[in-house]
């Protein structure tokens, strides 16, 4: 899962990002409100940690604009302010949680974990299921329920398949997939995505699944369940 930290204290942002990466999250950082809006509106993030006191645009305004644009990411407000009115203001504009500085990093991680568990349709489950495939989100093992065959899906293959399985039968653009899996600032070559899609397709065939990744010319890719008829 991908997290955006919008925080102008770079040392703090870097410490939080490092800790979250240890938890296997993908983390990006914005250091002002305008950049936070720019990145947040890509809608590639599962959760945003948003400071209130930011240069160029304060966190409450960033929050308002994100929600006005139907961005559904969980948002945790991060601020030195502790007044009840500030917290109510954040919740009223669509924040999901609120933590006051100074805070213990483990508390923030715990709050992130809670929000992301609540944010997935697979809450409290070990698997994502589409068609006859089950992807274990903890072990990265992919099982075909039709054949009983299984195979390990690792690193970018796992992130790619997980994202497609979270959006079955939807056409997802190459740009959106690339941003979600590799990140907007990634220096990886664009043809990496096609290579990894090929890898995942081969693994689906190896286990005998009826699920496939279809290319939609000029638009992107779609995860489909093939009919046996």
CATH architecture of the largest domain: 3-Layer(aba) Sandwich
Head-to-tail CA distance between termini: 36 Å
Alpha-beta classification: alpha/beta
Widest β-sheet, arrangement of strands: 2-1-3-4-5
Our estimate of the beta-strand percent is 15-25%
Overall 3D geometry? elongated
Total number of helices: 8
Observed structural traits:
11 strands; 2 domains; 229 residues; five-stranded parallel beta sheet; alpha/beta; Arc Repressor Mutant, subunit A; Rossmann fold
Explain how this protein is built.
This protein has 229 residues and is of the alpha/beta class. It has two domains: 2-118, Response regulator (Rossmann fold, 3-Layer(aba) Sandwich); 127-225, Winged helix-like DNA-binding domain superfamily/Winged helix DNA-binding domain (Arc Repressor Mutant, subunit A, Orthogonal Bundle), CATH 1.10.10.10. 40% of the residues lie in helices and 23% in strands. It contains eight helices and eleven strands. It has a five-stranded parallel beta sheet, with helices on both faces. Strands 6-7-8-9 form a four-stranded antiparallel beta sheet, covered by helices on one side. The protein has a two-stranded antiparallel ribbon with strand order 10-11. Helix 1 links the parallel strand 1 (2-6) and strand 2 (26-30). It is elongated. The protein starts with a strand and ends with a strand.
């Amino acid at each position: 899962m991908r997290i955006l930290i919008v925080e102008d204290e770079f040392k703090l942002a870097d410490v939080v990002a490092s800790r979250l990466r240890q938890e296997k999250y993908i983390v990006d950082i914005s250091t002002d409100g305008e950049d936070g809006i720019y990145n947040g509106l890509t809608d590639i993030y599962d959760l945003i940690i948003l400071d209130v006191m930011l240069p160029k645009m304060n966190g409450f305004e960033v929050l308002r604009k994100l929600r006005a644009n139907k961005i559904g990411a969980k948002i945790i407000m991060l601020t030195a302010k502790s007044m009840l009115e500030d917290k109510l203001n954040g919740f009223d504009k669509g924040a999901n949680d609120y933590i006051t500085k100074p805070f213990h990093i483990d508390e923030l991680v715990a709050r992130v974990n809670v929000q992301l568990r609540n944010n997935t349709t697979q809450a409290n489950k070990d698997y994502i299921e589409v068609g006859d495939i089950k992807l274990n989100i903890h072990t990265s093992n992919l099982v075909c329920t039709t054949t009983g065959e299984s195979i390990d899906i690792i690193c970018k293959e796992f992130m790619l398949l997980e994202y497609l399985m979270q959006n079955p039968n939807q056409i997802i653009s190459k740009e959106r997939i690339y941003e979600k899996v590799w990140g907007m600032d990634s220096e990886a070559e664009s043809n990496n995505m096609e290579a990894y899609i090929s890898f995942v397709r081969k693994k689906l065939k190896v286990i005998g699944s009826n699920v496939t990744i279809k290319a939609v010319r000029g638009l992107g890719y779609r995860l489909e369940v093939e009919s046996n008829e």
